[in-house]
Amino acid sequence: MEEIVSKKRMLSGIKPSGDLTLGSYLGAVKNWAERADQYECFYFMADLHAITVRQNPADLRRRTLEQLAQYIACGLDPEKNTLFIQSHIHQHAELGWILDCYSMFGELSRMTQFKDKSAKNEENINAGLFTYPSLMAADILLYQPDLVPVGEDQKQHVELTHVIARRFNGIYGEVFKIPEPFVPKVGARIMSLTNPTAKMSKSENEDTGRVLLMDPPEVIMKQFKRAITDSDTENCVRYDKVNKPGVANLMTIYSAVTGKTYEEIENEFIGCGYGKFKPMVGEAVVEHLRPIREEAQRLMKDKAYLESVYRDGAEKASYVAEKTLRKVYKKVGFVAK
Ligand code: AQP
């Protein structure tokens, strides 16, 4: 198989730990879909990462396939992008182990996601939760990408990937390419609609502050109508992240789905108050997500097609991953098979 070398390479993934949210879409998938022509792109369903928190096996399997259908429905054409399931590429777990041995306890302890997740899962603070960033470093470094698009919350992990890669390269020579994180300007952090100081997450805010990619219009509208704005008396649509986080979050969402700037949004809603603004944001989101939801529903009925996509993706991904892993094995001193 010929490897494409002309385009720069990009890689990212999402855990199928819950149904994709508007946050996963605006912070990640939407930006991926816009780059397929410029980059050689690899995107995966991060099922190995998902099990750092207990999952119901049937739900995990269903969500992994649904996520693939949703990636495609969001515009990730499998002809242009390599789409695969992380656990199908054994090299992730293998390089993950090796990089565990090049990741320091202190570095892993400082990761804010580890601190957050262990506070929320006190009964299951497992080693996988702790070493999550070295597996994430393996996910990235296996593919030698130039760019890693992530939301703001994952930036710290990409920075640790740099540290681990530099440490490894410092000992063995230039084995890994050092990729740049790409954090989108709008949508890097979509907050819960009912708690604008907390990130909108797949596995949290169960039936309150999150909007799912597959939510029907009436549910989306209900969520936006009950979104928290401000307790101030101003009742005016103005971007002020510190003093008006709820309104700022709604403006970010509106900006991301309409392409309008914050200034244009402020002008559009002069004298309108939150009562009118909230359903307008809801309607814009409904219309933006409608074709995605319909296409994902159609794809979910075609299991044979989805299977062909992830098998094809695994073949392409494993070719690249194996090349890096073989080099790493040789460098650290493992005897060739
Ligand atoms: N609310 C968000 N705003 C912007 N970006 C977001 N991302 C996730 N939520 C938001 C980005 O999506 C990518 C994949 O994330 P992930 O699912 O692998 O991990 P996560 O960030 O831990 O996502 P969740 O939704 O919070 O999942 P759970 O609840 O299972 O931990 C990343 O690039 C992330 O930044």
Walk me through this protein's architecture.
This protein has 337 residues and is mainly α. The mean pLDDT is 93. It has a 3-stranded parallel beta sheet. A two-stranded parallel sheet has the order 4-5. The longest helix is centred in the last third of the chain and has 30 residues, at 303-332. The protein has helices spanning 22-33, 47-50, 57-73, 91-100, 105-109, 112-120, 127-141, 155-172, 217-225, 245-258, 262-268, 273-300, 303-332; strands at residues 8-14, 39-45, 81-85, 147-149, 180-182. Helix 3 (57-73) crosses helix 12. Adenosine-5'-tetraphosphate binds at residues 14-15, 17-18, 23-24, 27-28, 46, 150-151, 153-154, 187-190, 199-204. Residues 14-15, 17-18, 23-24, 27-28, 46, 150-151, 153-154, 187-190, 199-204 line the site of adenosine-5'-tetraphosphate.
**What's the structural domain tally?**
2
- The CATH topology of the largest domain: Rossmann fold
Oligomer: single chain
**Sheet with most strands: strand arrangement:** 1-2-3
Radius of gyration: 21 Å
CATH homologous superfamily heading of the largest domain? HUPs
* Count, helices: 13
List unreliable stretches of 5+ residues. Answer: none
Helicity range: 40-55%
* Overall pLDDT confidence: 93
Bound molecules: adenosine-5'-tetraphosphate
SSE string, helices as H and strands as E:
EHEHHEHHHHEHEHHHHH
Return the CATH architecture of the largest domain.
3-Layer(aba) Sandwich
Keywords:
337 residues, mainly alpha, Rossmann fold, Tyrosyl-Transfer RNA Synthetase, three-stranded parallel sheet, two-stranded parallel ribbon
